[in-house]
Design goal:
Blueprint lengths: L2 H24 L23 E3 L7 E5 L2 E5 L4 E5 L2 E5 L10 E9 L5 H15 L4 E8 L2 E9 L3 E10 L2 E10 L5 H11 L4 E2 L2
Antiparallel strand pairs: 1-4, 2-3, 3-11, 4-5, 5-6, 6-10, 7-8, 8-9, 9-10
Helix pairs in contact: 1-2
Length: 198
Amino acid sequence: MTGSRTLLSRRLALSAVSIVAAFVLCSCGDADDPSGPETTSSPSSPEATESQAEPGSEGVVAEVDGAQLTAPDGWTVVMEDGSPVIGAPKDAGGYSPGFGVFDADMTLLANTDELAATALKVLKGSRPDAKRLPDVEFGGVTFYHLRSTNDVNSYDEYGSVIGDSEASVAWTFLNDFASREQIDEMINQVMPTFKFEG
């Protein structure tokens, strides 16, 4: 019963770790030297393609298994290992402060509290300071909220059981690029757009 959630949480955690590593490596370049050679990169997997909002559009949409989020202009969505990764806008130096890994799947768990308890147990395995904060509502759906902060980054996870499905978003932001207030502001630009069509 909890095996599917444990697998989903581990997949989210591993995706988050690999994406943080990529963000850190990408952030090591010298943005002040425009005379250097232009570099190009290829996606890390065949399905890794980036989407950006078209000028004048309502934003960029991330969809997975009947769940949907819309990020405003300036945000990106990249499919990575079957999950949309929602990238926050880049700053003047060309660096994004963080991203959210969006996932949805079928579940055997009865409710959001069971999902939260399982997710917290899994998260504490890699981030012992993780704690559950008060539930929040986005798009008419109640989500649990987990948080963990260390010297490098801040991690916020939101999840919900909706019928026989679950949806979750694991947000990771680098502390050097965003304050807690900025992180909350960026998350709140996206999470209220949540829709679930099963």
